[in-house]
Each structure stands twice: as structure tokens, then as C-alpha cells.
């Protein structure tokens, strides 16, 4: 509130939809607002409509407003660059990452935070803003964030599962380039509906590339964002900047697809067991969502029981991946 009073000309508000819930975002600092909004721009909604807010987010830029965090977390050798903490009753959750500090009040569904200065944000923070508290908030909604990608075509949603390096991003991005709707390449909110079906909800329209790998996507290369920090090697691409009409908020899940890098030019697929699908979803999701527990694993098990699973061997011809996925959709019917 002091930051907003100090710089009323720098207060920007947006209405967003996360996991089907209305979220009010208020940022003091134009540059910070720009960096926060771009990875979630596809989730913005008409601000003139009446909404019942499920979450309120208030952020400010200390440098732009002249309002410092009152209780600074001092960086020492005993405190890592990123750390998380919760109050004894777990009502409050604190996340500190490099230059930003975020605190979520889970009872009041309010997130408050700041950054020291916007040009100090890491590439991770610029591509996945508010990642840790938003993951916890999704969990509280019983819509856990899982480590998977999601694309859709003609009403058919395909969940790409597997560990880092398996080819999820390559599969999702090549499908986007091939005309599919894109929701994510590795983070999805998983909702189980009352009729037993499943939906996936998008969090970010961002993706990260190794520099050598991005060269294989010449249409995306001009949009690559470099980190301001020497310890971050990857490049960030905000896909809504390139394909605003192809980024979706949510989609039904009709199959689980396990990508893997093949040794030929052509991409092929075959049916896979439910056990392999569950193994591809469970442990990687635990790695990115520390609140993942038995209830979440049971939900993944029900998902693998309810939809078919496929193994997708990715060929070296990137242009052939999307057509192979289209064939897979035809087999699903």
C-alpha cells in the first residue's frame, strides 16, 4: 500500500484466470508489471466484467517505488540463493529467490511480494513468475501442478509426460508450429472433474531452449530472451508473443504421450502401458511440486486408468512430429 501511494502512476491491475479461478493482480512498477504479465498474458480476462476473486496478488518494485522490504532476508553462506519456509500452522508460505521475496497467506488467499529491482530478476523468474506460491495455491484447490506438457487439436488434448530431457518441449513446440493449441511444455494444473474425466490448466506460455537446440526453430530464434545472469545458460521464449491465437488456458486430457528421442528421421508411436505412464508422471512431478503426496499420486493413477497411453519416438525431422501426433489422434478417435 505504501508503494502504491508513493507511485500511483505506476499501479497496474489485471484480471487473470488460473485453473478456472479469477485472480486479481496489482503491480506497482511498470517494468515489473510487463515482465510479470508476458508469460501469463494468455490468461488475462476482460477487466470490465464482474468477477469473484479467488486470489489477490500484490507486488511492487522496490527500486521503482523507493519502498524497501522492511525485513530483509540477509544472504549468508548458510542461506541458499533460493529457500522456502512455512509458518508452524502452514498458513503462511515464504519463498525467496535471488532478488524477489513472496509470501502467500493460504487462509485469505492473498499473495504479497516484491523484487529489489526488475533488471535483477533471473530468467527463471521472468519465465515462471510466482511459480512456487502459485503451485501451492493450485494444490490447495485440489488441482496439483504436474511436470507435463499439454497440446490440443480438434478438442483432443494430449499430455506429454516424462523426465527432463525426454523430448516433452520438442514435442509440444513442434505441435504448436504444426497448428496445435499449446498450453505448456512442462507445467500443467491437473483437475479431476465430477464425471471422472481430467482437464489440464495452463500456467505459463514460456519455454526454455539450449542455445544449440533453438537453432532448429528459426521462427522462434528472433524472440529469444537472454539472461542477465552468467549462471543461466538457457534462452527464454514467450510463445504468446509469437502465436497469441494458439495459446489456450485449459483443455481436456484424452491421452498420455511419452516422448523419447529416436534414432531415425521419422517419428513413430505405439501404445504404452499404464504403469510406464504413471512412472513418467509421478517422480518428475514430485521434483517440481514439493507438496505432492499420496492423494496426488492416486489422482495420477486414476488418470492413467481413464485414458490410453502411447510412446512417441521423435525423429530427427522436426517437421514430421506434428503429423505423427495427428495420426495418434486419429487412432484415439
Kindly provide the radius of gyration, computed on alpha-carbon positions and rounded to a whole number of angstroms. Answer: 20 Å
Main beta-sheet strand count, sense and barrel state: 7 strands, mixed
Question: Percentage of helical residues?
Answer: 25-40%
Structure annotation, total helices: 11
Spatially, the strands of the biggest sheet line up as 1-2-3-7-6-5-4
Question: Which class best fits the helix and strand makeup?
Answer: alpha+beta
Compact overview of the structure:
This protein has 11 helices and 19 strands. The protein has helices at 2-6, 30-37, 62-65, 123-127, 131-140, 168-177, 211-214, 239-242, 274-288, 294-306, 321-332, and strands spanning 11-18, 21-28, 53-61, 82-86, 92-97, 100-105, 110-115, 145-146, 148-153, 156-161, 181-184, 188-192, 198-202, 206-209, 235-238, 250-252, 255-261, 268-272, 309-314.
Q: Would you mind describing this structure in some detail?
A:
Strands 1-2-3-7-6-5-4 form a 7-stranded mixed beta sheet. It has a 6-stranded mixed beta sheet with strand order 11-9-10-17-19-18, with helices on both faces. Strands 8-12-13-16 form a 4-stranded antiparallel beta sheet. The chain has 333 residues and is of the alpha+beta class. It starts with a helix and ends with a helix. The protein is built from 11 helices and 19 strands.
